[in-house]
From TrEMBL:
Mn(2+) binds at residues 13, 194, 196. The record marks 12 as: Transition state stabilizer. It catalyses: (S)-4-hydroxy-2-oxopentanoate = acetaldehyde + pyruvate; (S)-4-hydroxy-2-oxohexanoate = propanal + pyruvate. Its EC number is 4.1.3.39. InterPro entries: 2-IPM_HCS-like (IPR050073), 4OH_2_O-val_aldolase (IPR017629), Aldolase_TIM (IPR013785), DmpG_comm (IPR012425), DRE_TIM_HOA (IPR035685), PYR_CT (IPR000891). The keyword Lyase applies. It comes from Conexibacter arvalis. It comes from the Bacteria. Belongs to the 4-hydroxy-2-oxovalerate aldolase family. This is 4-hydroxy-2-oxovalerate aldolase. Keywords: Aromatic hydrocarbons catabolism, Lyase, Manganese, Metal-binding. Coiled coil: none annotated. PROSITE patterns: PYR_CT. Transmembrane segments: none annotated.
Length: 354
């Protein structure tokens, strides 16, 4: 069986679930536990990556530099990873902060049809002799052929591999497996998978990705992450071991790390509720779960209707303002319908009297 590299973004994707408020002690204790488990890569930072802390998407409790420094001090045996999206992450400021903090592995992400945006960042990191991977986000929104084209661009820029990110937890297993197989054949370099659990398929999809040729898989402790959560790291490691794959991870130690995360990091365990399921069906970014619920409550509309409307508009990460627009439109439509019904009832009553 293949050697599978596991990357753990608990301290990055998990930040979404706590409004980016992970503190020093939490980062330090989990990083030490992941180090003891020999998880290959521990990814750290704001939920949206380097340079993303802002009023628009959420201000982090700690700076990028502080989060990376704290984790670096605890990661003696495994690699420190970071994630950046051009537009949030700048080359001369944010990438250099991560380089100076001792980050070993860099991932540069873009929407699945916009790999061009990663060229300067990937090229710059390769010039600094850094280990860099491309990330294609919201991959259910592109055809397999388009994904292959975008992945080949990232390869040409110097990326060592490409991670397929199921940002909405929208993939059904057969569809994902087909796309991974095509990417492996078309690119002849490392392909990875990052799953979300909206349809309760994150672990199954991760295993299917490995079966199709993926050699990198992501998972977070207890699925700690946005919305319905991510692939559960401890379950993934156990299942891959049962299937005969070598991850190099100590099973008991990763179970201990997951227990620690549940006690000390996770305010509420991720779960697949009705809104999370609809988010996956609609193919909308999982990070929108909290703002959609909040705005829907404020406007008195059903959050499921909001997600389906966002899906019809093919909204992607970074378009938070559209949530408000959609909620207002739904509220107005409900009010219009109510007034129409009221008018109809009045007409009916007047007709009966006459």
């Amino acid at each position: 069986m293949a050697q599978i590299l596991i990357s753990d973004p608990t301290l990055r994707d998990g930040n979404h679930a706590v409004q980016h408020r992970l503190n020093e002690e939490q980062i330090r204790r989990y990083a030490a536990a992941a180090n003891a488990a020999r998880v290959a890569i521990v990814e750290v930072g704001h939920g949206n990556g380097l340079g993303a802390s802002s009023l628009q998407v959420g201000e982090a409790l700690l700076s990028d530099a502080d989060m990376l420094r704290i984790a670096r001090e605890e990661l003696s045996d495994v690699k420190l990873g970071v994630f950046g999206i051009p537009g949030f992450a700048t080359m001369t400021r944010d990438l250099d902060v991560a380089i100076d903090a001792g980050a070993d592995v860099f991932r540069v992400g873009a929407h699945c049809t916009e790999a061009d945006l990663t060229e300067r960042h990937i090229t710059y990191l390769r010039e600094q002799e850094k280990d860099v991977y491309g990330v294609l986000m919201m991959c259910h929104m592109a055809t397999p052929e388009r994904l292959c084209e975008e992945a080949l661009k990232m390869k040409a820029y110097g990326a060592r591999g490409v991670i397929v990110m199921d940002s909405a937890g929208a993939f059904l297993t057969a569809d994902l497996q087909d796309r991974i197989a095509r990417l492996v054949d078309a690119t002849s370099f490392a392909i990875g998978f990052h799953g979300h659990n909206n349809l309760c398929l994150a672990v199954a999809n991760s295993v299917a990705a490995v079966d199709a040729g993926a050699t990198i898989v992501d998972g977070t402790a207890r699925g700690f992450g946005a919305g319905a959560g991510n692939t559960e790291l401890e379950v993934l490691v156990a299942v891959l071991a049962e299937l005969g794959h070598d991850t190099g991870i100590d099973l008991y130690k990763v179970l201990d790390a997951a227990d620690l995360a549940e006690r000390e990091l996770v305010q509420q365990l991720p779960s697949t509720d009705s809104v999370g399921i609809v988010s996956g069906l609609a193919g909308v970014f999982s990070g929108y779960s909290k703002p959609v619920r909040r705005i829907a409550r404020d406007f008195g509309v059903d959050p499921r209707d909001v997600f389906f409307a966002l899906g019809r508009r093919e909204v992607i990460a970074g378009q938070e303002d559209v949530i408000l627009e959609v909620a207002m439109a739904l509220r107005d439509a409900v009010e219009e319908q109510r007034l129409e019904q009221q008018d109809e009832e009045i007409r009916t009553t007047e007709g009966e009297r006459s």
